């Protein structure tokens, strides 16, 4: 018996075919699988990736409908997107979860634990005694206080305050102003078309200046780190529960957290695709020993 | 001799015809005059308003080209918009200034003073010893920390933090969450199409709950008031220089400023249109006594 794991989002869709013991025997990658904006395209990307994973493993694609699959897809926790997708897919045993949940499974395994994904956005997921709690991820305009986009936004705000003589000038802020011709209007114009990831491109610069002792960088990073701390606090984790930071800012923020969280940080066991495979193995590979309640999850 | 004042922006364009002693004898209002996005439309709105002001005063429109005018127009301080507009207008003596400068002239007259315009956005203008200093007005995403839009944004951020268990719940935040069906995603969706003025519609609610002692309202207003204080500080006004707050938040923020600014607050002498008229009287009505240097301002 084989199992499938799929990890899909707005950028790409990856699939892995594995043995029932989670040993991956074929991998593939296809285009974006955004179930919120393009359900047909997402369906196609998923099936392309799955077909290529079968081919990479030298397996007969006739077995695809019979292969149990866990799909982790961005947006799967919102509205009816997951149900609509499931109706179009050929799999007889199929579980569709959010991409964040398979990232959690990949990072900390099947037990209790929490992840903080600190990338362009920032969000958190915890599992304790089988109960899932999610927070953050509302976008940098109103949230994502521990994200690269928010750090970039904070930097531009601070630069404008320095320009106006309201905040003190620092090397970092002067560099940002100089990069925009010392014209505040140029900064404002940038933001009119900038996407969150464009704001996020400033984050490495902030951490770079932090190393050199820049006070504005210190203020901005301190605010982001405090926000990550507050979010982890709000998950109300048991003291011993492992927590894992993922995303581009993970290694920058982690060492700056207070000991209560820093000392509980663990490296991820595997990535989100590995998490989907492990979850499939856990749910479908051992299905004979599962209770009826758990089988309800599978939505055949 | 008569003089003209015009106050134009994205919403409407007002004109006033006055005697050389600034006594208004005819008023009119026309459509928007946004010189940044629609120069032809702005030109038309200005001439409609001016023509109707002449008609309201019972004056012959043949005198329009000979009547000196000060136009205060949003965006006139940016780029070449003002120069392009001037080339299309029929006036022989015409000064085009930003709408903020005529608001300053209206509020505090021709002498030293400062205004803080606290509306959907927030910006500041000071004149000291004839020198103009402007700050703020960069938009609520990166600035406008004393504005209605920023207060609305801050409120929504705080509501999401309360939903996630990161900030304490208060009556205000619960009311905001309830108004969105206790669904954070509904708040995020709102922001995708919301304009700054839509964010600003939350400001009265924040001040309403402040009166009832709501801690979240207190935090949000305290932050806005501190920002206004910091901006006034940055203008580096002489101790005795009068300062005047304008816009929808003026009467809400003013009493909460520290004494150094609160005790120097003055009510506006007149509105921006009156400021344009006064400036026209000052520059053109008395032109025989003006120095050559000042005449250079008139750009005939």
UniProtKB/TrEMBL annotation, chains A, B:
Keywords: Kinase, Transferase. The lineage of its organism: Bacteria, Pseudomonadati, Pseudomonadota, Alphaproteobacteria, Hyphomicrobiales. GO terms for molecular function: kinase activity. The keyword Transferase applies. Signal peptide: none annotated. It holds the Pfam family BcrAD_BadFG. This is N-acetylglucosamine kinase. It comes from Labrys neptuniae. Residues 4-249 form the ATPase BadF/BadG/BcrA/BcrD type domain. InterPro entries: ATPase_BadF (IPR002731), ATPase_NBD (IPR043129), Euk-type_GlcNAc_Kinase (IPR052519). The keyword Protein biosynthesis does not apply.
């Amino acid at each position: 018996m084989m199992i499938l794991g799929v990890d899909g989002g707005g950028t790409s869709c990856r699939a892995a075919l594995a043995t029932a013991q989670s040993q991956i025997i074929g991998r593939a990658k296809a285009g974006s699988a955004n179930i919120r904006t393009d359900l047909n395209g997402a369906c196609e990307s998923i099936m392309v990736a799955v077909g290529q994973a079968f081919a990479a493993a030298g397996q007969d694609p006739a077995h695809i409908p019979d292969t149990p699959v866990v799909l982790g897809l961005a947006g799967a926790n919102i509205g009816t997107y997951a149900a609509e997708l499931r109706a179009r897919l050929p799999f007889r045993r199929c579980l569709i979860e959010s991409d964040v949940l398979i990232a959690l499974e990949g990072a900390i395994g099947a037990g209790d634990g929490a992840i903080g994904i600190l990338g362009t956005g920032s969000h958190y997921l915890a599992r304790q005694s089988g109960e899932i709690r999610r927070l953050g991820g509302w976008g940098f305009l109103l949230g994502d206080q521990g994200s690269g986009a928010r750090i970039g936004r904070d930097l531009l705000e601070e630069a404008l305050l320095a320009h106006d003589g309201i905040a003190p000038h620092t090397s970092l802020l002067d560099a940002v102003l100089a990069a925009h011709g010392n014209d505040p209007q140029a900064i404002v114009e940038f933001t009119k078309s900038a996407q969150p990831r464009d704001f996020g491109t400033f984050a490495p610069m902030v951490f770079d200046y932090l190393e050199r002792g820049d006070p504005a960088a210190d203020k901005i990073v301190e605010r982001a780190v405090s926000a990550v701390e507050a979010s982890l606090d709000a998950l109300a984790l048991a003291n011993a529960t492992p927590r894992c930071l993922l995303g581009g800012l993970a290694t920058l923020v982690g060492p700056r957290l207070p000991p209560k969280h820093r000392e509980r940080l663990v490296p991820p066991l595997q990535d989100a695709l590995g998490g989907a495979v492990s979850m499939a193995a856990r749910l479908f590979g051992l299905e004979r020993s599962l209770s009826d309640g758990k089988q309800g999850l599978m939505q055949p």
